[in-house]
Amino acid sequence: MSGGKHKLVVGLLGGIGAGKSTVAQFLVERGAAEIDSDRLNSEELAQPEVVQALVGWWGEGIIEDSGGVNRRAVANRVFGSDAERRKLEAFLHPRIGRRRARLLARYHQDPDCLLIVLNSPLLLEAGLDRLCDTLVFVACDRKRRLERVMRTRGWSSRELDRREKLQKPLDWKRDQADHVLENNTSLDGLRNQTQNLFLKLLSRDLEA
To answer: Given a cut of 70, is residue 2 above it in pLDDT?
Structure first.
């Protein structure tokens, strides 16, 4: 594939803890490039001007001993107040958007990149689907997702529900998708589904 060709942009959808990042990693192993909104968010939270702004809003209590932003403390602020959440989003989202745009431009020019994967918890809510050529929903039942976030993030069932209420309903997200991957069995099963999807998408891209 020659450099400069428009690469197929794949947007990932699914509930919290459904396995979107795992699917993204499987695609990266096959030659895709991932743009991870959580990673971009972390990079922005490390910028001195961002730290200064957040301390100005909420005080030194949101800073860890290491000097970095305590993401849990920020989450407690914004998920308990729509006004604070909107204020943070209005500040961070344009900055993250500029980082995303630079990465998209770079990957479209990269001859080693076969597909571009957008991995964002708020892909539809933030209108990022307009950047995508196809949408993939990662389906996983709530019990499995809860077990995963309890183990990896220390969340309770109430916390999972609280976070998901800020997002569009999962049934609606699934309806928007062009493809569905089932993540209710084994990791190998998900890997095989992802590999098959990758080959299907790449074939479609090459024929375009």
So the answer is: no
The answer to whether the CB of 156 falls within 8 A of the CB of 172 is no
pLDDT at position 3 is: 47
How many beta carbons lie within 10 A of that of residue 80, not counting itself?
Answer: 10
Mean pLDDT of 176-192: 96
The pLDDT confidence band at residue 76, using thresholds 50, 70 and 90, is confident
pLDDT tens string 79-99? 888 899 999 999 999 999 999
Which domains, ranges and CATH numbers included, belong to the chain? 8-203 (3.40.50.300)
The H-or-E segment that residue 90 falls in is helix 82-109
Those residues whose C-beta lies under 8 Å from the C-beta of residue 165, and which sit 6 or more positions away, are none
Compute the mean pLDDT over every residue in the chain, rounded to the nearest whole number: 93
* 78 neighbors 58 (Cβ within 8 angstroms): no
Can you read off the two tokens belonging to residue 30?
A: 């096959």
Contact status, residue 136 vs residue 32, Cβ threshold 8 Å: no
By CB atoms closer than 10 A (0-12, 13-18, 19+), residue 51 is middle
| Per-residue tokens: 131 | 């950047």
Instruction: For residue 115, give the 3-state DSSP assignment.
Output: strand
pLDDT digits (tens, 9 = 90+) for 189-207: 999 999 999 999 988 765 5
In 3D, which of 12, 42, 32 has the Cα closest to residue 195? 32
Could you give the angle at which helices 187-207 and 20-29 cross, rounded to 10 degrees? 60
Element (H, E) at 117: strand 115-119
